[in-house]
Amino acid sequence: MFRSEFPIFYVTVDVVLLAVREGQLVVLVVRRGEEPYAGAWALPGGFVGDGEELVDAARRELVEETGIVGDGLALEQLKTFGAPDRDRRPHRVVSVAHLGVTPYAETATAGTDAQDARWVPVDEVTGGLAFDHDAILDEARARAASKLEYTRLAASFLPPEFTIAQLRGVYEAVWGLRIDPGNFQRKLRASAGFLESTGDSVKPASGRGRPAEVFRALGEPFEALGAPIFRSAM
Amino acid sequence: MFRSEFPIFYVTVDVVLLAVREGQLVVLVVRRGEEPYAGAWALPGGFVGDGEELVDAARRELVEETGIVGDGLALEQLKTFGAPDRDRRPHRVVSVAHLGVTPYAETATAGTDAQDARWVPVDEVTGGLAFDHDAILDEARARAASKLEYTRLAASFLPPEFTIAQLRGVYEAVWGLRIDPGNFQRKLRASAGFLESTGDSVKPASGRGRPAEVFRALGEPFEALGAPIFRSAM
DNA sequence: TTGCTTCTTGTCAGGCCGACAACTACGGTC
DNA sequence: GACCGTAGTTGTCGGCCTGACAAGAAGCAA
Question: Which residues in chain B, range 158-197, keep a C-beta under 7 Å from any nucleic strand D atom?
Answer without folding.
Answer: 180, 182-183, 186-187, 190
